[in-house]
Amino acid sequence: MGKYILKRTLQMLFTIAVVSVLIFSVVRITPTDPITSITRGKPASEETIAALKKEYNLDQSMPVQYINWVSDMFHGDFGKSYQYRESVASIIAVRMMTTLQLMLQSAVLIVFIAIPFGMLSASKMNSLLDQTATVTSLVLVSSPSFFTGILLMLLFTMVWPVFPTFGTGTDFISNIRYLALPSIALAAVHMALIMRITRSNMVEQLSANYIQTATAKGLSRPEVVYKHALKNAAIPILTVTSLELSGLLGGSVMVEKVFSLNGIGSLLADSINKSDYPVIQSLTLLMVIIFLLCNLIVDILYAVLDPRIRLK
Amino acid sequence: MFGKREINLSTKGNTGTLFTIPVIVALAILAAIAFCSMFAPLISPCDPYEQDLSVAFSGPSAGHPLGADSVGRDILSRLFYGGRTTIFGGIAIVLVTIAIGIPMGLACGYYGGKIDSFFMRLCDIILSFPSLLLAFVLVAGLGRNMSNAILALGIVYVPGIARLMRSLTMVERNKPYVEALHSMCYSDWRIMFIHIVPNCVSSVIVQITLNLGYAVLDLAGMSFLGFGVRPPTADWGAMLNEGRSYLMQNPLLALLPGLCIILLVVSINIFSDGLYRYLEPKQRKLPSFRAYERAMEKKRKKATKLQAEKGGCEA
């Protein structure tokens, strides 16, 4: 087991190294000159340009810039933003909480609504409830998260104004109400997917022979579904759910823009539109690291649950 | 040995049909959308780029059947032209994926070894970015416009197709016909592209139609963030973004393009699902056989219930 964890961790570190080179070079091939982004297109004198180049470490060669960037990141210094003229780390730190809470609330929705509904519609296969759930999930999967967000916004401003549709509160508790609609919009696609997967896994288990045996033994329906079928369906459901949860990070970019939230998703969108490269490269690398860490944890959990994986 | 039921079970004459009711409806919607976008210049009531501030935010009228947007452009015409951009974009993304992914998967599956591990590591790197993040970074580097967004999204989808093609090729490679072709001194290229590819088409095509739906959604997302189609070009994603600022004045500006996207993607998904059921032999069943299966299932359940009521088995 320890060997397996070590192997996966080393693989992850290698991937992070390659990804960091990739991000750094892709951001550098840009046709926009960094100095233009810093001065916001205003003409600058020779001295100002030289000073700016020195301030942002642009006067060094590419490999040196890369090494500086990586070694600074180890010290918690993510560079300096072109548009805010502030340290990237502090900008991210301020905005991180909103995104994390948004992801947390979406995760709660996914785990406590999508999975039970998927199980329910599997155990009542072909009923009205099952068919409604199937059609709803098809529509939700096909609706872009930003459009779901806009629909929710319209619904909750015009028809039923109980949730705020704009901005954020001051602390965690007040944020729960502010982030209610964004988290529904963010979770919708993933909820639909996980409901479908839960349903199909449960249906598969429920049509297995051991279920027939259990029913013939005289066990009650809830016992059959929740004690026997669920245990066997749990592993694939858990894997997909955890992968979807780490995928929430990418989806937050659009949802945060729709609801004008100050999270790292909207920060990334703004930075790309304003060619703020220090923010783009550090933020992307950070997101990739979080994503890979989540995947690593899932893989390890999976190996714990299913011994066949680690023996391979 | 071949009773009446057995003949029903054999695949001969049991091809089923692609044209179930949901698929027919989906195809009809797709055809309507394709017609409106293809003949947009002929059926549009107005020029989609002509601004007329005097009718800005106006509701439906004779001149503008669905009203006009914030600068007085006709919404219906923009929806028709937007369909062109959206569908073209989706297809272009899928083509980029095919052009890169299929040869890559073929080479990996056919040659194996170092080529295989190199390209598969490359796919792992692409997959180590959460959802659209890689596309965002590529667009940030290459420049924000539609062709770069198409290229970036095409690359994001490559691992899916490449891995599928690889596993299919690995199965085909070991079949006797490939050995026969080798013994006839056919070149690797010819074996791969003329003989192996046609045998993999049915599985790949399902994945491609599925990707088309996601491609439309993701391109709309990129345009929504301002990374894809640039204003004033008519595109459903970009129109949604424009309409978002005027939700209070006229919600139709955002609702109509959004509904068009959903309609298009739902239809593509239903079609893709139908295609999968049709091409997957396990799922291919005649309606009469499905009815037979249902009847058997009912019988089985009844028997199980009876057994349970009798007090359960001793074992």
Report on this model:
- The complex is a heterodimer of chains A (312) and B (315).
- Chain A has 312 residues and is mostly helical.
- Chain A has helices at 2-28, 34-38, 46-55, 62-74, 88-123, 128-141, 145-159, 172-178, 180-206, 209-216, 221-258, 264-273, 277-305, 307-311.
- Chain A has a domain at 94-275 and 293-305: MetI-like fold (Orthogonal Bundle), CATH 1.10.3720.10.
- Chain A is globular, with a radius of gyration of 24 Å.
- By secondary structure, chain B is mostly helical.
- Chain B folds into two domains: 21-49 and 72-284, MetI-like (MetI-like fold); 289-315.
- Chain B contains twelve helices and no strands.
- The longest helix of chain B has 38 residues, at 188-225.
- The model of chain B is unreliable at 1-14 (pLDDT under 50).
- The chains are: A mainly alpha (312), B mainly alpha (315).
- Chains A and B meet through α1, α6, α7, α10 and α11 of A and α6, α9, α10, α11 and α12 of B.
Q: Care to give the gist of this entry?
A:
By secondary structure, chain A is mainly α. Chain A has helices spanning 2-28, 34-38, 46-55, 62-74, 88-123, 128-141, 145-159, 172-178, 180-206, 209-216, 221-258, 264-273, 277-305, 307-311.
